[in-house]
Amino acid sequence: MKISSEEVAKVARLSRLDLTQEKTEQYAAQLGDILGYMDKLAELDTTDVEPLYTPVGQVSVMRDDVVKKDYAREDILKNAPETDGAFFIVPRIV
Amino acid sequence: MSEISTLSLSEVRARLADKSVSATEATESALARITATEPKVRALLSVQADEARALAKSLDAAGPDPAKPLWGVPLVIKDVLAVKDAPTTCASKMLENFRPVYDATAVAKLKAAGAVLLGKANMDEFAMGSTTENSAYFATKNPWDLSRVPGGSSGGSAASVAACQAYGALGTDTGGSIRLPASFCGIVGLKPTYGRVSRFGMVAFGSSLDQIGPMTRTAEDAARILQVIAGPDGRDSTSVDAPVPDYVGALAERGDLKGLTIGLPAEYWDEGLSPEVAEACSAAVKKAEELGATTKRVNLKLSQYAIAVYYIIATAEASSNLARFDGVRYGYRAKNVESLMDMYVRSRTEGFGDEVQRRIILGTYVLSSGYYDAYYRKAAQVRRLIRQDFEAALSECDVLLGAVCPTTAFKVGAMTSDPLQMYLMDIFTISTNLAGLPGMSLPVGLGRESGMPVGLQITGRAFDEARMLQLAAVLEKNVPATGRPLV
């Protein structure tokens, strides 16, 4: 399986990563090897096999919708790169 | 090395309970051991010595509490698990200054059980790797031979416990990250059934694969930690509300292996094992037969597809999970950014290491339009077939035995250039995560050639950890002693 540098660059953009040209080419070669290895799955006939996305059978465990205050605002904001004491601050959007 | 620090968790626990050892003595001897060995082993990213000493002092003031099963026992925690107010970096620059405002559920349960947490253990960045060389801070060394890797990704936890810095550790296992380092460092590592232990407060890698489990020097020690951390949790909807058996009590019920049927998967035994690993593991199986177990050959025909399935599903889930690191609410933010997009891109590019970026890109690729069906959906279909393979084998056997890894611990730097070669080291461990089954590494002696520990892998039925622990506890008394590293 060949994967081009352009494809890697496109996926990197989708992933919000900025790769150097050198790294793009290195990843293209490595991902080509890895995807080539993965192509062996095509040998298996999986017609009508239900995909298994999680090993546990239970889905959507329900609980009562009650408001709980677990953490204080100032504690949560302590880990933020930039705040005004009440909100997270990000670069100007509009 | 002080005599106290080389005791097993179960032994020190008994001495703490009868007050022949105080919590302060246990904590001080562990901290002294950390001071003596850390310059060489480098297992820990941070040590909370003041907090540990203060807690030990208050425990001693109150006196032993029989209701707290780990009263006064010093432990370390893999740095992927949230410990309130302590650094929780995932060995990544992305979380260098992150201090959680809450405890992971497993950590909270250890604290409630009276454990003294000493520090946070090194790991491959975001648990992505098999050698603990992928830490953004430093590589951990194998205490048996400092020129070799400890395995990964829970390599700091394994090296710390092997070097007697602590009586046990929590690790996490997405594709073998508890079992591989346990095998390489000569300790016991147990990955519980998916759903057995709450994942709340574990920084997610592959959410359908991740489990938290104990890493200890004996099987009984592992049972004692699992006893505390197992059980349902309202904060993790995938934790299963199944009764938690008396794991420790179950150990007393078995002195031999009569009536136990052990499956030996042909795909795990017939090729690929290094001679010393095959020799030590075969000797352990023979010993199990002498102790009354019946063995039979079984097949896991889809094993050859497991690595491909795993690295599609794990990277797909990782690319989604790691999208949360955007420089807004916590974690690294690049300096002097010009726009919101610039902030996202530069924070992630500067904050994530090489292997993490490679896996995010691979995961994004297999989920992208046009490739989703060929890779992600296909992998999920084969995943079901792999689980059916295991269910068939385990319908005629109680447990399966094989090696944890084809080799013993290899040299530092041997696997760093070729990611695919590194992924292939996980060949025996990853199927267990795909199937959601419990897996365990038990030391069964030293390899004849390398002199390094060999780990035997025990795979069990879902929620059948008690039987695996029984087998491990009987077998560990009857295989050649692995001993302790001289670091």
Textual characterization of the structure:
- The complex is a heterodimer of chains A (94) and B (487).
- Chain A has 94 residues and is an all-alpha fold.
- Chain A has a domain at 5-43.
- Helices cover 35% and strands 0% of the residues of chain A.
- Chain A is built from three helices and no strands.
- Chain A has helices at residues 5-14, 21-38, 73-77.
- The longest helix of chain A is centred in the first third of the chain and has 18 residues, at 21-38.
- The radius of gyration of chain A is 23 Å and the shape is flat.
- Chain A starts with a helix and ends in a 17-residue tail after the last helix.
- The model of chain A has no long low-confidence stretch (mean pLDDT 92).
- With 487 residues, chain B is α/β, with parallel strands linked by helices.
- Chain B has helices at residues 9-17, 23-41, 49-62, 105-112, 155-162, 179-185, 219-229, 247-251, 266-269, 275-290, 306-321, 340-351, 354-367, 373-396, 419-423, 430-435, 465-476; strands at 44-47, 74-78, 116-121, 168-173, 188-191, 211-216, 261-265, 294-298, 399-403, 439-446, 453-460.
- Chain B has an eleven-stranded mixed β-sheet with strand order 1-3-2-4-6-5-10-11-9-7-8, sandwiched between helices.
- In chain B, helix 4 links the parallel strand 2 (74-78) and strand 3.
- The longest helix of chain B has 24 residues, at 373-396.
- At the A-B interface, helix 1 and helix 2 of A face helix 11, helix 12, helix 13, helix 14 and helix 15 of B.
